[in-house]
UniProtKB/TrEMBL annotation:
SMART domains: BTK, C2, RasGAP. PANTHER family: RAS GTPASE-ACTIVATING PROTEIN 4-RELATED, RAS GTPASE-ACTIVATING PROTEINS. GO terms for biological process: intracellular signal transduction. It comes from Gopherus evgoodei. Residues 1-105, 116-232 form the C2 domain. This is Ras GTPase-activating protein 4. The gene is LOC115636608.
Length: 691
C-alpha cells in the first residue's frame, strides 16, 4: 500500500500588475515552487500588465509537502529579473477545498525573512541531576540553505537562544550545506516559558546579516522524553504582520490536491479482469448493461477528461486500447442518428480518442507540425484574410512608397498561407510510415464502424469526416493554435504569429480530407473553405495511398525510448535564472531509457527548462533500486567538497536525493495500480450517488 499525492495547477491570468520597465509595462512570467523547490516556469507574456497564460500542469509530489508558491516575475534581457510578488497556498487550505481552490488571489510583497528553505540536524537533550540540570543543544549540520550572496552560496552560522541568553556558532564560508558539530549548554530554568530557538543566519561583512530560518524546540516535551534528535525544517520569521493592500495586482489560479491510497495490484485484478472481458467481448453484450456503458453514462463534464485518460492508460497497459475504443465507437454510433453530429460532442468516446492520440502520438505530432510551426514563428509574416481586419501599410523602397490595397494584402496573405499549408501537406504525405501502428489500426477500425453504420451512398463521406475530425480538429488544429501547450514551443506566440497560427489551424482540416479524395480530384483542388484558400493542390498526397487507415499496419520495431532530448544551458556561477547566465555553455543532451549522453551539436531553437529535465531524470530513476539516498551537489576540489567542506571524497552525500516531485506528461510510464485505483474511485462515487 502506498500513498500518492498529485496537484493539478492551472495558472489562468493576472491583472493590474505594476509596471517594471521604463516603457510603463512588464514582461511577466510565473515560477511555481513546491516547498521552495522550483518545478514550473510558465512562458513570458511580453509588454502587458494583464497577462494571460492558461497553462495547466499536474504534479506528482510527496504527501508530506507543506505549500505551493507562485512567484510572478518580470523578465529583463540585460539585468536580473524583477520579482513582482507572490501567492502562497498551503496544504491545509487545499485540504479544506476537496473540489479544488479557484479564484483571484492578491500578490503580496516578498519578505526576505519568509523566503527560507532547507533543514538543520539537531539534538536537544536535558542532562544532569535535579539540582543542576542543563539544556544541551547539539548543532550538527544543515542542508539546502537559501543562497543569499552574489557568489551563489551563503556564509551560515547558528544562533541559539534560551532564557534571554544567546550563543553563536562559527561561520562556515561559502556553503549551503554547512557542518558545525558544535554543542551549546544552558542552565535549565524550570519556571521558564520560553522555547529554545535555533536560528540560522548568513554572515555579511558589510551589510546586515540575512535570516535563513529558525527552529523552535519545546523543552517541556524534551523534559518528558529526555532528548529529541533529527532533521528539522527551517521555518520563516513571521513576527512582522503585514497588511495585504492588493497594490501588486492579482493572480487567477485553479489548484486541486488529490491524495490516493494505492493498494497492491492483486486487489484490483477482479476489476481489471471484468473490464478486459467486456472489451474483448466487443459491442455485443446480449442486452446486458456492461461496466463500460455504466462509466460512459455516469461521467460528467467535470470528470470525463480524467476518466478517459485513466481508461486509456489502463487498456494501453493491457494491450487492448484499440478494442476499448472500438467499443466506445459502437456505443456512440448507436446513440447517433444524424451523421453531421457524429463525434462532435465531448462524449467519453471523443475524450478517450483525444487522450489516446496524445498518449501515443505526441512524438508523431511534433515530427509533422514542428517544422511548419517553427517557420511561422521565425518568419513572423503578416497574414490576414478578413477584410474588416486588414491593416493597410506602406511598401516600397525609399522615395517610392505607396499604400497597399486591401486586395493586395489579402492576396499576399493567401500566398503565405498556402506556402505553409503546402509544407504541412508534403510533411503529412511523407509521415505515413512514421505514424504509430496502433493509431493507424484504430483509425482503420473507426473507418470500418462508421461505414457499417452509415452504408447509404449519400453518407459515403461520413467515414472520412469521422477520421479527419479526430486527426485534425481534435489533434492537429489545437496544437497549431496553441503550440506552447503541446510543447512544440517554449513560449507563447505574439499577436501577429498567433493570428497566423489561428488561420492555419482553421484551414488545416482540408489536408487529410484532400488526401482521402485525391482519386476523385486528380490534379485538381478540393473545395472545402470559402474564400482565397478554397482550392488547394493535393497531388503530393498520391504517395500516401490511404495507408494510414486502410493499408497494412506495420509491426512496431523495438527501439530505445527517448525520454527527453534537446539543448540545455549549463550554469557557471553568476546569472539571472536557473538556465541563462552571463557565462554559460550550451550542450545537446539526450536522455533515453538506457543512457544519458551529450555532445556539442547544432540543435533546435527550443530551450528546455531545467525543471523539465529534472522531472524526466527523476521518472527514469524512480524504479532504480541502486539509487543513492544522498549526494554531493558540489564538486570535490582540492581536498574537500565545495558544498559541505567534507574531506572524504567517498563519504556520504550531504544532501538527500530528491525524486518525489515530477511533472506529469503524456509520455509518463504507465502505472496500472494507480489507474485502477482512480477508476475504482469513480465507480465507488457513482455507487454512493445512486444510494
Amino acid at each position: 500500500m502506498a500513498k500518492r499525492s498529485s496537484l493539478f495547477i492551472r495558472i489562468v491570468e493576472g491583472k493590474h500588475l505594476p509596471a517594471k520597465d521604463i516603457t510603463g509595462s512588464s514582461d511577466p512570467y510565473c515560477i511555481v515552487k513546491i516547498d521552495n523547490e522550483a518545478i514550473i516556469r510558465t512562458a513570458t507574456v511580453w509588454k502587458t500588465l494583464s497577462p494571460f497564460w492558461g497553462e495547466e500542469y499536474e504534479v506528482h509530489l510527496p504527501p508530506t509537502f507543506h505549500s505551493v508558491s507562485f512567484y510572478v516575475m518580470d523578465e529583463d534581457a540585460l539585468s536580473r529579473d524583477d520579482v513582482i510578488g507572490k501567492v502562497c497556498v498551503t496544504r491545509d487550505v487545499l485540504t479544506a477545498h476537496p473540489k479544488g481552490y479557484s479564484g483571484w488571489l492578491n500578490l503580496t510583497e516578498i519578505d526576505p525573512d519568509e523566503e527560507v528553505q532547507g533543514e538543520i540536524h539537531l539534538q536537544i537533550e536535558i542532562l544532569g541531576s535535579d539540582a543542576a540540570r542543563k539544556l544541551r543543544c547539539s548543532v550538527f549540520e544543515a542542508r539546502d540553505l537559501a543562497r543569499k550572496d552574489r557568489n551563489g552560496a551563503s556564509d551560515p552560522f547558528v544562533r541559539v537562544r534560551y532564557n534571554s541568553k544567546t550563543q553563536e556558532s562559527s561561520v562556515v564560508k561559502k556553503s549551503c550545506y554547512p557542518r558545525w558539530n558544535e554543542t551549546f549548554e544552558f542552565d535549565l530554568d524550570e519556571s521558564a516559558t520560553e522555547k529554545v530557538c535555533i536560528e540560522v543566519w548568513d554572515w555579511d561583512l558589510v551589510s546586515r546579516n540575512d535570516f535563513l530560518g529558525k527552529v523552535r524546540g519545546d523543552h517541556q516535551l524534551i523534559r518528558t522524553v529526555q532528548q529529541e534528535e533529527g532533521w528539522f525544517r527551517l521555518r520563516p520569521d513571521k513576527s512582522k504582520p503585514r497588511v495585504d493592500e492588493g497594490n501588486l495586482g492579482s493572480l487567477q489560479l485553479q489548484v486541486r490536491l488529490r491524495d490516493e491510497t494505492v493498494l497492491p495490484g492483486s486487489y484490483y485484478q477482479p476489476l481489471v479482469q471484468l473490464l478486459c472481458q467486456e472489451v474483448k467481448a466487443g459491442p455485443k453484450q446480449d442486452g446486458k448493461l456492461c461496466l463500460i456503458t455504466l462509466i460512459d453514462e455516469t461521467t460528467t463534464a467535470e470528470c470525463r477528461q480524467e476518466v478517459a485518460i485513466n481508461l486509456i492508460k489502463l487498456f494501453l497497459g493491457q494491450g487492448l486500447a484499440k478494442e476499448f475504443l472500438d467499443l466506445l465507437f459502437k456505443l456512440e454510433l448507436d446513440k447517433t442518428g444524424e451523421p453531421n453530429t457524429l463525434f462532435r460532442s465531448n462524449s467519453l468516446a471523443s475524450k478517450s480518442m483525444e487522450s489516446f492520440l496524445k498518449v501515443t502520438g505526441m512524438q508523431y505530432l511534433h515530427n509533422v507540425l514542428g517544422p511548419t510551426v517553427n517557420r511561422v514563428f521565425d518568419e513572423k509574416k503578416y497574414i490576414e484574410l478578413d477584410p474588416s481586419k486588414v491593416e493597410i501599410k506602406e511598401v516600397g523602397c525609399s522615395g517610392l512608397h505607396r499604400i497597399q490595397t486591401e486586395s493586395e494584402v489579402i492576396q499576399q496573405s493567401t500566398q503565405h498561407l498556402q506556402s505553409y499549408l503546402t509544407d504541412l501537406l508534403i510533411t503529412i504525405a511523407k509521415s505515413v510510415r512514421t505514424c504509430p501502428a496502433t493509431i493507424r489500426a484504430t483509425f482503420r477500425q473507426l473507418f470500418k464502424r462508421v461505414e457499417e453504420h452509415f452504408p447509404e451512398n449519400k453518407h459515403k463521406n461520413v467515414k472520412f469526416i469521422a477520421v479527419t475530425s479526430f486527426l485534425c480538429l481534435r489533434f492537429f488544429s489545437p496544437a497549431i493554435m496553441s503550440p506552447k501547450l503541446f510543447h512544440l514551443r517554449e513560449k507563447h506566440a505574439d499577436a501577429r504569429t498567433s493570428r497566423t497560427l489561428l488561420l492555419l489551424a482553421k484551414v488545416s482540416p482540408v489536408l487529410p480530407y484532400a488526401a482521402l479524395h485525391w482519386q476523385r480530384e486528380r490534379g485538381g483542388g478540393v473545395c472545402v473553405h470559402k474564400g482565397p484558400c478554397q482550392h488547394f493542390p493535393v497531388q503530393h498526397f498520391r504517395s500516401a495511398k490511404l495507408r494510414s487507415w486502410h493499408g497494412k499496419v506495420d509491426q512496431p520495431k523495438a527501439q530505445t525510448l527517448v525520454v527527453k532530448e534537446g539543448p540545455l544551458f549549463i550554469h557557471r556561477g553568476k546569472g539571472k535564472g536557473p538556465l541563462l547566465s552571463s557565462s554559460f555553455k550550451k550542450l545537446h543532451f539526450s536522455l533515453t531509457s538506457e543512457a544519458l549522453s551529450f555532445a556539442k551539436t547544432p540543435s533546435s531553437k527550443c530551450v528546455n527548462e531545467l525543471n523539465q529535465w529534472l522531472s524526466a531524470l527523476r521518472k527514469v530513476c524512480v524504479n532504480n533500486a541502486e539509487m543513492l539516498g544522498s549526494y554531493h551537489p558540489g564538486v570535490f576540489k582540492g581536498d574537500k567538497w565545495s558544498c559541505c567542506h567534507q574531506k572524504e571524497k567517498t563519504g556520504l552525500g550531504c544532501d538527500k536525493t530528491r525524486h518525489g516531485v515530477t511533472l506529469q506528461e503524456w509520455n509518463d510510464p504507465l502505472d496500472p495500480d494507480l489507474e485502477s485505483q482512480l477508476i475504482f474511485r469513480h465507480l465507488f462515487g457513482v455507487r454512493e450517488l445512486m444510494r
